[in-house]
Each structure stands twice: as C-alpha cells, then as structure tokens.
Amino acid sequence: MERRNFLQTLGAAALGMTLGNRPASAIPGNNKISYIDGSWFEFQHHSTVEGKYWNRVLENFTAEQWEGKVREIAISGMKYLVLLDIAIDGKSFYPSKLLPQHHMGCNDPLETVLSAADKYDIRFFVSNGFFGNWMTPDLVMKDKQISLFTAKAMNEVAEKYGHHKSFYGWYYPNETGINGHYDEFFIEYVNTSSAEAEKITPKAKKLIAPYGTNHITPDDRYIRQLERLNVDFIAYQDEVGVRKSKPEETGKYYDQLYNMHRKAGRAKLWADVEVFSFEGDVYKSALLPAPGERVIRQLEALSPFVEKILIYQYIGMINKPGTNAFAGHPGSEQLYKELTAKNWLRGKK
User: Fold this and answer.
1) Which of 50, 114, 178, 185 is deepest in the core (most CB within 10 A)?
2) How many CA atoms lie within 13 A of 326 on its CB side?
3) Distance CA 220, CA 225 (A)
4) Structural domain includes residue 17
5) Low-confidence ranges of the chain (pLDDT < 70)
6) Distance between CA atoms of residues 263 and 157, nearest Å
7) The domain spanning residue 144 has which CATH number?
8) Which residue in 154, 184, 191, 183 sits closest to 169, CA to CA?
9) What pLDDT is attached to residue 20?
10) 26: helix, coil or strand?
11) Are strands 276-278 and 287-289 parallel, antiparallel or unpaired?
C-alpha cells in the first residue's frame, strides 16, 4: 500500500481529525520519524542451511567482537534488540545448570551483549527458548514438561542477568501461523510465559512476533483474542522475505491490524520486517541481504500503521563498512549503505 502523500499538505487540525490517535509514525510522509527501531539478534542461526554465511563466524566471535557488534548496531540508531534464543538443540548459549553449553569463542556471550547494551543504551528482549524441537513448535507449546523446564530456565536467566538495565523484556520465540485467528494453545503458551515473567521480572515487557499476517481475519473474534493475550507488543512478520507477501500488499494487512489493536486497547502494534532473501528455495537455502530497493518499499508500506519497526535481522544481513565484527554475506555492507542513505538507519558516528 503506497503512502497517501496528499496528507502531507493537510494542517495539524486536519491530520488530527483524519488519523485520530494513530502513532506519530502513522502520519504518511513523515520521514523525520521513519526509522528502523531495532532488530532480532542471535548467537547462532537455528537453521544451519539458512545461516551459511555467518554461523561459523559467530561461533568464533570473541567477547570484543560481540561488544563491537552491539556498539555497531547502536551506532546505526537502533534502540531495541530481540534475542532469538538462549538455547538450541539441547545446549545453552550461557553457563547453565540446566543444560550443557555450546562451545563458543566467548564463554558467556549473553553476559557480554547485555553488558554492551548497558553501555550503549540498547534495550534487549531476552528469549525464553528454544527448548525441545524448534521445528515442531505446536508440540513444544503443548508439552507441559517443556513448559516447566522453560520456567526454570527463565528463573535462572533472571537470576543471572536480570540486574542489567538493558534487560528490558522477554521474547517468546515459539510460533504457529495465524490461520484467521490464533490457536488457543498458542494463547495459553504466551500467557503461561507471561505469568512466569511477571513473577520473576515484574517490570519486564513482553513481545511476540507471529506469522500468518496475510491470513488474519479482521473480526470481533480476533479482537477478543488480542484482549486476552498478555503481551505488551506484537511485531507481526511482514513475510516478504519468505515470499508469502509482496511489499505492495502488506499495507492493507497492517491497516486492518491497526484498527483491531486500537479497538482491543492492549498490545501495541509493531512490525517485523524481513530484510532477507533466499539464495535458492525458501527455507532450503542460505539467507542473503535483500535488495535495498525492496526493503525500503517494505518499510514505507508499514510505517503509517505501526509504532515501532523491527527487522529480521541485522546479524548476517547488515554490516557497517569497516566493522571489526563482520558476520554475513558481502552484500550486507551495501544494504547498510542504502538504508543509511535513505535515513532508515540514522547512522550516528
């Protein structure tokens, strides 16, 4: 959906009548507030074939490089990072009493990045997964034993890292696609996770990022489900990178979501913009940085409707030229340049 640039010519009063209580980013053509606000972040990509260009590099990152990557992202102007997972394939990314630890070039990358985020004023959403088989999320979310284990891990993480000022909130990574409406077991999984989060970290925010955005049914049932979901932010995937939607289609989805979130009056509407493409078949090949022109069209389509724009993801897809913590495809430097040139990345020195 293209921005309606004629609204730029309206006065402040007319804008108020036209847009009601929409966020500042909902004013079409208001480029001053059109920024990428944050990104997903990971220590290892869960799909080894997709992470072909950066998994091995990240595995060997030193503490200095992890700090450098957080600083680099902060310099880009982003304020939020969403940690994809604290464990994968039965091993943790931090020293844990519950699981063996992945062998990495840095002994405690979670401590390192949170300490760096403290220093560079980044807000982290810390994952509460993946436990169990990430490829079968529906079974994981229904498994009571995994739910109990997840609660133990959340408590361990909160005890070890909850003192960091950058520990802003929790992210729940298990997902099922929205097929018209949310699955009831997904709502139970989210609310169970949030109940635990509120016990151990009462001030922490809660974030989810569902997919199936182009299949949402904009009706009262969906609004009632939004009212029941105990989260602060929902960053819907635009699904352009996985070839389920096109940039010119996504605006209408987020326009509908904006109206439903306003009626529900609970979770704020954010976006999860996919800045990748696939080297070959979807899900069966490596991720590459998407062409800058496509990414900019994605960002422009959603900016009028969402409070914050997050991307999936900086790691692997974007690198500041000259960085000492390069991880990803060589084309990632070009995407950084193009986004900075268009002011979607603020590019502070």
Assistant:
1) 114
2) 12
3) 9
4) no
5) 1-34, 347-349
6) 35
7) 3.20.20.80
8) 154
9) 39
10) helix
11) antiparallel
